[in-house]
């Protein structure tokens, strides 16, 4: 039976391979032998139909499987970054102890004067807090424009009513102990050290501003420096392939780092956790203007 099945395959291949180069003939013959063996096994066991169904099922599962190991809630719901075509789950649950998070907005991060795309980032907040955004100080009449407008010297909106604007709005939200996260997906292969250095540069810049303004004491300044070093130590020395996700998760008093749904560690420092989130909504030198704009619109839509 085996030789009969193999002979059938060789006969078919032989009809099309007589004029092919020698290397191609060898490849075709090898393929035909493999096919004959597989044919024999299928015919002998009488499972043609079941194997076909299994193969089809495996192909579908492979094509539709999530690209990340994150525990995604509502995996069928995604939002796509139009600049990079990276998909973000609308809801996901971090590995760190944290309630379900909801995607507010996303945007691409670009660097250098060439505006090279580095990664797409999505900003998430605690789902259960969305319905109470109106009660956050400064958010009672929130619009996207309020988040995108730097504070004015008068501290009021065009109508003359006191209104918080810019980065201060996100700070007011974070002061409510709201869990949130920034989920990052590189659009080109990179490494942990490159991403790590970007995060620490942003934190060091904000530490310097806090030191200059006198909003932190010398003791706090020293502690923050140690916390930044602790954050740097969480990142391994290895590559981060295109399309893999890295999440910075801010919970009560700590910042956790996750890679593809696996925890890399956390730093228990409330200042560092808050300032890492605020760096993406800074009034000056914002990390991703596209992210800030989309989050502003996302918050406005959520509050309608």
UniProtKB/TrEMBL annotation:
Q: What keywords are annotated for this sequence in UniProt?
A: Isomerase
Q: Which GO terms describe its molecular function?
A: intramolecular lyase activity
Q: Which InterPro entries match?
A: Chalcone_isomerase, Chalcone_isomerase_3-sand, Chalcone_isomerase_sf
Q: Which domain of life is it from?
A: Eukaryota
Q: Where is the Chalcone isomerase domain?
A: 101-296
- For whether the record's keyword set contains Isomerase, the answer is yes
Q: Where is the signal peptide?
A: none
The record's section on Pfam families has: Chalcone_2 (PF16035)
User: What PANTHER family does UniProt report for this protein, alphabetically?
Assistant: FATTY-ACID-BINDING PROTEIN 2
Name of the featured protein: Chalcone-flavanone isomerase-domain-containing protein
Q: What's the source species for this entry?
A: Kockovaella imperatae
